[in-house]
Amino acid sequence: MCGIVGYIGSQKASPILLAGLSKLEYRGYDSAGIATIEGNVLKVVKNKGRVESLYNLDDTKKLEGSIGIAHTRWATHGIPSKINSHPHLDNSNSFAVVHNGIIENYIEIRKFLEKEGYHFISDTDTEIIPNLISYFYNKDTKNDDLKILRAVKNTCDKLIGSFSLEILSLYMPDNMIVVRKDSPLVIGKGNGESYIASDIPAILSYTKDFYLLENFEYALLSRDSIKFYDNDLKEFEKKSTTITWDAMAADKSGFEDYMLKEIMEQPTAVRETIGSRLDDIYCNFDELSFTKEYLSSLKQIYIIACGTAMHASLGVKDTIEHLCKIHTEIAVASEFRYRNPLIDETTLCIFVSQSGETADTLAALKLSKEHKAKTISITNVIGSSIARESDFALYTHAGPEIAVASTKAYTSQITLLTLLAMYFAEILETTSTEELEKLKLDLLALPNKVETSLKLTSQAKNIAKNIFKEKDVFYLGRGIDYATALEASLKLKEISYIHSEAYSAGELKHGTIALIEKGINVIGIMTDENLLKKTVSNIEELITRGAVTTVVVSETTSKQIDHSIFDNVIVVPDTNIYLSPIVTVVPLQLLAYYVSKEKGLDVDKPRNLAKSVTVE
Ligand code: G6P
Description:
By secondary structure, this protein is of the alpha/beta class. It contains 20 helices and 25 strands.
């Protein structure tokens, strides 16, 4: 939901800002813009469209300043247009601001400023910010070093909503101010220079040392220093964090798209997520150190997430209940946050989020804490808001995921949640040692199984050629396969714009079967031997009505079906049923990918979507 970049140092800022924006386009790509200060002039270049549209503008090439802020937009207030793009200036062209987030009370503030004589040229919520800063600056009679910082703080105090802000001002041409509240922002520390971005990978090629700003912490940057101020504008020392990811991990490394690269990285991502958590005897979760007494006191586990992370959670519900014998609920964060959930200290709440910044998941986490539940986060981004806010932070080690459609984060999340369930079961002694041992061995073999699933690439590519012209596709599954069906269907609709729906195989005949007619594509997932016959019967009912069918089966279930009745049969490697979503989803991710490619679409940046949804 909008990406922001900043630079202050002795190099020319614009190439650094453009490179950073390109890495952040997954957050939005409706329009982009840059502001720098040269001499005593604020120079602003902005344009509707993608970041690359800025590259060739003469005005961009002319930007010489070595201090600058930049933005790539995912429109919330006001259509994508040049005038609505950031940076926004105040009426006197003295303050420039880029903003990620939403200001909920902007209409009220706008009316107030209009009464004070300010005028507005855009439809955005953001434009009130430089003007309110200007208002407070002009009213302040004290002329000390903190005058601008005070104006920014007074402004932030009035804002309701979420924001991360970068601010330039002609009144301090060699400084920049940044601040955040509920939207991400990191500062990278270089030698005589600093980099700012919405996330770490965007500036990882410049530095590995980062400051992770907390809500209402203000940073005043100059070429040589970064001063931190708390919400009372008292200066304080802040510790930096060293990130060990390799910058290459955030590049395409020769792949046509990030999504394909990330699909192919899944064996490594799963392997890294298992890491050293499995040893001969125990599952290692040193970060948690839960006692048997605490775990036995739990009446329920809630896993709360959005989108693909929610599907990953659905994929482990049965595993947790089976291994730990604790009732487990999966909740959509945007619903959960507005309910009055029946949770207390006897509930454990687990929050799953690739980015660690999803606004609804973060709000649900805060609500759970108010209800006294213990909270664990599972995120892929070290130091993300959800990780910091939770009682216990666990990380998937999938590496940066850039494509909007999530793939390796999903398989890593299921891996980590399964390990967590095993850890609980070991403490609770609710599962036999033999079964846990078997599951451990199956987990260790999993990266190789995912490797085998990736060999289905050309089959997925061929099936895509028959699907890309379709208008509707249905996905079916039972039990754990139903969770995979939901995720596979989401992947297809996200990047191919084909309408698709996932149904539990037994539910389809309660209404939706009315939509099945000759030529409709149905994809059945049937890796659970115990449920196979039931799902086959359901699919046969659809074949009778003219459906074109593709089924995904395991090596074992493949031997138990008559291949000739289906149009396509995809065989994935056998694995433990509780790990099956991880191997089964792979050919379906590839299918969605190749359907999108056949349609000539931008796989990594599908329309209307953003990778990190930091607004409600
Ligand atoms: C967006 C993305 C999805 C993602 C969801 C949750 O909708 O497009 O791919 O699954 O947000 O994101 P999170 O970062 O919390 O996993």
